Amino acid sequence: MENVSKGDLGGDKMQEFFELIGNQAFPIAISVYLLTRVNTELASLKDAINKLTATIERKQ
After folding, report:
1. 58 or 25: whose pLDDT is higher?
2. Tell me: the pLDDT tens digits for 7-21?
3. How many Å from the N-terminal Cα to the C-terminal Cα in the chain?
4. pTM as predicted
5. What is the CA radius of gyration of the chain?
6. Distance (Å, rounded) from C-alpha 39 to C-alpha 59?
7. pLDDT band for position 1 (50/70/90)?
8. Within 10 Å of residue 7's Cβ, how many Cβ atoms?
């Protein structure tokens, strides 16, 4: 068992935990957020292209 003084409270473990969050979890969260936003924008563009196609077909 580790010898941890009262004032330390496992500082090394907390440091490792925050490094893990900073190095892996944060970039993953940002990537998921951006992919969700891009997916929404692509759906919106698809709808606009379909409306434009229908309008062009009616004009011909």
Report:
1. 58
2. 555 678 889 888 888
3. 81
4. 0.51
5. 25
6. 31
7. very low
8. 6
CB 58 within 8 A of CB 52: no
Could you tell me if residue 17 is left (phi over 0), alpha (psi between -120 and 50 degrees) or otherwise beta? alpha
- Please tell me the distance from the alpha carbon of residue 39 to that of residue 25, in angstroms, as a whole number: 21
Three-state SS for 28? helix
3-state secondary structure of 60: coil
Q: Distance (Å, rounded) from C-alpha 20 to C-alpha 29?
A: 13
Instruction: Determine the Cα–Cα distance for residues 33 and 31; give it in Å rounded to an integer.
Output: 5
Rounded CA separation 14/3 (Å): 16
Alpha-carbon span 36 to 33, nearest angstrom: 5
